[in-house]
Write a structure and sequence with these properties.
three-stranded antiparallel β-sheet; single chain; alpha+beta; VPLPA-CTERM
Length: 238
């Protein structure tokens, strides 16, 4: 039996370095991937940099929103939450807040909008948007810091509060509140009207085309070189 001796090979340090890089603990980061999108590498989701996206997207659907009810394409959409009954979107599910200068919506409106939203990323259309989970929202709050909202970190604008996907009962859902650094549970209704909040969305994974990390290429090259070196040593011993 022949043994391959690689102790003197220059490749050995490269293999050790590449292995160390691959095995090192992942550091959480929020990275701008261009086109107004931010990638969270811990939750593995892509956020829209501008938290005004919902309000801007529907702004053109209703003339004089300060005096007129919403008349856009979300009307008539049927949303079935994980618990509770199906809900048909009507004008009461969206509210233009003149004091804030933007639209807010009910949890059902938030879900309907996220499901129908599309975003152009270069030559590709990203269409698999959804509401963030409470865990994803909490990680975002932890990453940017409690009490941080508006223009912060890599984001153009972070809403001070926004709906999450987590419906905890037929009458309650979670709301993320970066303003206070918390995830809180609120009723879906506020008296006879839906409760309104800001609306934000995420897409699964990193929507940009990202090459493999350099460490992976280094590791693969080192292994390939190690195999070649070993083969040559075997041939030399023959």
């Amino acid at each position: 039996m022949k043994f391959i001796d690689v102790r003197d090979s220059w490749l050995t340090p490269a293999v050790l370095v590449a292995t160390a890089l691959l095995c090192a603990p992942a550091q959480a980061s929020l990275t701008s991937i261009g086109n107004g999108l931010i990638y969270d590498d811990v939750s593995d989701v892509t956020w829209i940099s501008d938290g005004y996206a919902f309000s801007l997207d529907i702004a053109g659907s209703t003339a004089n929103p300060a005096t007129n009810s919403y008349t856009g394409p979300l009307l008539g959409s049927v949303v079935t939450p994980p618990v509770g009954s199906a809900h048909t979107i009507d004008a009461n599910d969206l509210s233009y807040q003149s004091g804030l200068g933007r639209w807010l919506g009910s949890w059902w409106a938030a879900s309907a909008w996220a499901d129908s939203f599309s975003y152009q990323y270069g030559s590709r259309t990203v269409a698999d948007w959804r509401l963030p989970t409470s865990a994803e929202a909490q990680h975002l709050i932890d990453a940017i810091g409690a009490g941080q909202y508006a223009a912060t970190g890599p984001f153009t604008w972070v809403p001070p509060f926004f709906w999450t996907a987590d419906v905890t009962s037929a009458t309650h859902a979670d709301v993320a509140r970066p303003l206070f650094g918390t995830i809180d549970n609120f009723s879906l209704m506020n008296g006879s009207l839906p409760r309104y909040s800001n609306i934000w969305a995420v897409a699964p994974g990193n929507v940009s085309s990202v090459p493999l990390p350099a460490a992976v290429w280094l590791f693969g090259s080192a292994l390939a070189g190690l195999g070649i070196c070993g083969r040559r040593r075997v041939e030399a011993q023959d």
